[in-house]
Design brief:
Length: 435
């Protein structure tokens, strides 16, 4: 892909070293590195063009308001023209080669635009409505209490990310999807593989040191997901249950069953994104309390009153989804910057969630922050389908957890996933005292 750049002012060109940091999976493994680069962009070139060797020209959007402007207009800024998840040019070429020339490998809502997006989103939209999700409260609270009891059984020291944050959201989302408990370890491995292709510690053996490891691991993991859900789909068609696989497997749209690719796209998105976003927020929010101990004390004083606010701040501060890409369907202006048709835009959600024009002390974790106009769930037609579920399961979890803890402290350095799409803390050693 090429962009006509001759008329673009030099003041809109992003230095290569800044753009490379924003695109680099490794940078997201270091909170300081990525937020230093994003802060520089917000101050100097909040919407500018990157021309990094090996990548298509891409406009990086860093301001909260501009991210909202782009996100709410799917006609001007579609998702389906180019790959909405960042790859370098070699990675995108691999995607096309393995998918009959298409720019994406998954038929999910992320890769669609209205009216197609609207039709398929409506398939499960009623299930994820707040009123329906609220009916799951007691079932989720039982799972939260079981998880808190397990944490307390570690007798004062554990890895909060591995021993707790990964497991509770997995149990919740797999229960709703219809995955039996004995298959949860398989799903955990696949969800970690799905987003971990750029992290040397998370790579499969067959892609280690491969220059397009992330794209290849994504593709291989998809095939594993499909094989698993093919079997589960057939089971649910023979014997439907009260779960999401049964809903999708037995639904008809326009008088026809849900196509194979779209059904599998739904299953993978629910399993992978539904788990990893919530587990990353769980670990990231708890790390916020560790890093700002006064906020832990504030939360302890009113856990039920502050739990909902804590969830919003955890999503803002941890911001598990790092980006989505959009393109321009015609020449368009955003905040005084004119971009040509067929330009690609990188929406930086961590930047929008720490925009100084929107948030006081944006790098601080403030448990009772109000208002909290973050973009951690996205915005517009592609706003997270499961946001009501995520909010509820996180709120219930911390309502149950915080009253059980007298004190918390780090027992070692945290470790982050090296991934530029969806990532969070993968190791968080802690010491704690029971209340």
């Amino acid at each position: 892909m090429t962009t006509s750049n001759a008329a673009i002012s030099e003041k809109l060109r992003i230095p290569d070293e800044i753009a490379q940091t924003v695109f680099s999976p490794k940078a997201y493994g270091d909170d300081d590195d990525i937020h230093t680069a994003l802060g520089w962009l917000r101050e100097n070139i909040p919407l500018g063009l990157s021309e990094v060797p090996g990548y298509d020209p891409i406009w990086i959007v860093t301001k909260n308001a501009d991210i909202r402007t782009v996100s709410k207009n799917a006609k001007l800024f579609p998702s389906s023209i180019f790959n909405p998840i960042l790859n370098d040019q070699a990675g995108d070429e691999f995607v096309r080669q393995t998918n009959d020339g298409k720019n994406h490998s998954l038929e999910s809502l992320t890769f669609m635009d209205p009216p197609e997006h609207t039709k398929w989103r409506n398939l499960t939209a009623s299930y994820f409505q707040p009123g329906n999700i609220a009916k799951l409260s007691e079932k989720i609270r039982v799972m939260a209490r079981e998880s808190v009891d397990r944490l307390l059984s570690f007798d004062g020291e554990c890895d909060f990310a591995k021993d707790f944050a990964l497991l509770y959201p997995l149990r919740v989302v797999m229960t709703l999807i219809g995955v039996p408990p004995e298959d949860e370890p398989t799903m955990l491995r696949l969800t970690q593989d799905f987003y971990g292709g750029a992290d040397p510690e998370e790579q499969r053996a067959e892609v280690i040191e491969d220059p397009i490891a992330a794209a290849k691991q994504w593709h291989a993991t998809l095939q594993d997901f499909y094989r698993y859900f093919d079997t589960l789909t057939e089971e649910r068609r023979r014997k439907p249950q009260d779960d999401l696989v049964s809903l999708i497997a037995n639904a008809t749209i326009d008088g026809k069953p849900v196509p194979y690719d779209i059904a599998n796209g739904y299953y993978v998105a629910l399993a992978a994104a539904g788990h990893d976003t919530t587990s990353s927020t769980t670990g990231g929010g708890f790390y916020g309390l560790l890093k700002f101990p006064g906020e832990f004390e504030k939360f302890k004083a009113d856990p039920s009153g502050l739990a909902a606010n804590f969830v919003e701040e955890a999503i803002r501060w941890a911001c598990p989804v790092k980006h989505f890409l959009r393109s321009t369907s015609e020449e368009v202006e955003v905040s005084g910057v004119t971009m040509p048709a067929n330009a690609r835009l990188f929406l930086s959600y961590p930047s929008g969630c720490r925009d100084e024009e929107v948030f006081d002390h944006p790098h601080d974790f403030i448990v009772d922050r109000r208002p909290n106009n973050h973009v951690g769930f996205g915005f517009g037609p592609h706003v997270c389908l499961g946001l009501s579920l995520a909010r509820l399961e996180l709120k219930i979890l911390f309502e149950e957890l915080i009253p059980c803890l007298k004190s918390i402290e780090l027992a070692g350095p945290p470790k982050r996933m090296e991934a530029n799409f969806l990532s969070g803390i993968k190791s968080l050693p802690i010491r704690f005292k029971k209340a």
